[in-house]
Amino acid sequence: RQPVALDRERPELEGLHALSRRLLELHDETSLMRETMLTAAELLGAQFATTQMRVEKGLRLVAALGVPEEYLDPFRFVEEGGISTCAAVLRERRRVLVVNFDFAPGFEAFAREAAALRIRAAVSTPVLDEGGEVAAMITLYFDRPFQPSPRDLRVLDLLAQHVLPHLQRAHLAAELRHSINFNCALL
User: Fold this and answer.
1) Which of 39, 83, 131, 168 could cysteine-pair with 109, CB 3.0–4.6 Å?
2) Among 134, 126, 125, which residue's Cα sits nearest to residue 44?
3) DSSP letters along the chain, please?
């Protein structure tokens, strides 16, 4: 029985393993989040995706997949009061799933924006730090109604948990470089 279960999960496991190897080679937060977003989109079959990093009281867009630049402008910085699923995650500090924007109370304004790209569904998964605050975000968008399976949601959770220590490593490395540069300037 177990070999059959492993066969079903093999693509996800192989995707996670490949991502692990790539993340070890990356040293900046933007690259780490871009790779994680691309892996998530591939594993769940998303046509569009975005990823953001926490800055002050909001999220700053760091990478996108399949979304034309002109559609990204209103969403380059997202705050808690915004209209997107990402803004809802900031408010609620948990994943937000919209199976079909046609029937999603509270997302009517975003649904109108998304209609131009034929986006019908979204799942925004936060990367939570040790204090439960949103450190980063991965959002997948679909051109059809989309109900992820429990396994899909576990994969997204694993991706979010997996990238966090790499983000922390990149942040510490950036702080160290800044400190070294500052000390060199003083000398």
Assistant:
1) 83
2) 125
3) -HHHHHHHHHHHHHHHHHHHHHHHH--SHHHHHHHHHHHHHHHHT-SEEEEEEEETTEEEEEEEES--HHHHGGGSEEETTSSSHHHHHHHHSS-EEES-GGG-TT-HHHHHHHHTTT--EEEEEEEE-TTS-EEEEEEEEESS-----HHHHHHHHHHHHHHHHHHHHHHHHHHHHHHHHHHHHH-
Under DSSP, the state recorded for 26 is -
pTM across the whole model: 0.83
Q: How confident is the model at residue 3 (pLDDT cuts 50, 70, 90)?
A: low
Tokens representing 119? 């986006």
